[in-house]
Amino acid sequence: MPIGLVSSGDTKTGAAIYNWSVNIGNNNSQSLTIGIIVNNYYTRNSSDDDAVVTVSKPLSDFITGGGCLMLSSSSGLKAGAAGSRNNFGFNVKWNKGGTNLQGNINTIVRNGGLVYQIKGNSMTSLSVNAAAGTAVFNGKASIQDITNPLSPLSIDGNATLQVAMTDKGEPGTSDLIGITVWNKSGGLWFSSNWNGTTTVQLVLAGGNLSARPRAAAPPRRWWDSRRRMRLPEGRRAWMVRHASSRWRRTFPIRSPGGRRSGSSFPRRAA
Question: Which of 5, 232, 235, 270 has its Cβ near the most Cβ atoms within 10 Å?
Answer without folding.
Answer: 5
